[in-house]
Amino acid sequence: MAGEEEAVFATQPKGSGSRNRKTSPVDIPFLFVGVLLLACGLATYFCGIAFSVIRLVLQLGGRFRTWNEVIIWYSGIPSTAGVALAALDLALLFPGKRRRSRREGLASVADRHMVVALTAYNDEESIAEAVLDFRNHPLVQRVIVIDNNSLDDTFAKAKRAGALVFREEQPGYGFCVYRCFQEALGQGDTGLIVLCEGDCTFRAADLDKLVAFIDHADIVNGTRIVEQLRDYTTQLSTFMYYGNFFVGKLLEVKHLGRGTFTDVGTTYKLMRRASLERLLPFLSPEINLEFNAHFLDTALATGERVVECPITFHPRVGVSKGGNVNNLRALKVGLRMMWGLCLGWHRADA
After folding, report:
1. Which of 30, 57, 226, 259 is packed most tightly, with the most Cβ within 10 A?
2. In angstroms, rounded to a whole number, what is the distance separating the alpha carbons of residues 341 and 308?
């Protein structure tokens, strides 16, 4: 069946990239636009309230009072428009969007063997353990490690542990993940591909959970937003935990009817080969730490079916180099994720 899907894709116009790239007018994300308008209206309203407090403390009247009233009154325009658009989408369009998101059946995956691709940067303390963990799983055919210009012994330790190791000279998480995809697709004897990290925050045992959902999706994305499954000593702080959940819900609102999403930052996911082949031309490796949000947004926009699966999350071995270094850096990455979801994706340096 995977070959049949590839044949269908090959008959589409160049650049289409999915089963059905043409978007119906009723698929306009009214709820997403409505939420953004409501947020703008509420932000304007609270600015007006703050202005009122300052004005009263400083005893400013006259034109300051007039400006204050204008700000508060006109904040109702985007708020009202936002509520109207959200109500329209939820009440009238949502059922149709849900039906269209399930317009095609998925063939079950008979051969569940997979290739695992791990990103790595200065992970000499953890990479051998991560490689061996995945290599010992009965469904894993081989493990690939992409070393993104590590300055330590990551490359050699990954190789000694039995991985196929490649060096990606372009710095940045997006380039590293993109190379993972390219090298994994080059291993043509498995229909399933796994993306993960080499820092031991994720474990091979969860592959059994991910693969249980693959008959229902093109991509199974792990989610760390389950209290009982995450260790409390990880680098995922409370701020990052709820920030991920918030951006996940923003993604869900944008692609209403296409799934439930709670974690846009996880780097652990299982994909059908045919799905990744369709998706790869639309991904930009220049996008850095927010690449996973870009990946999910692009996958949903191009018609791939994405399902979330709860996974365990463990303390990393070594020092974090990604968006979880501290809350400030996580905030910057989160804001870039929201910018990308709202206004389009472009390169943003860490």
Report:
1. 30
2. 19
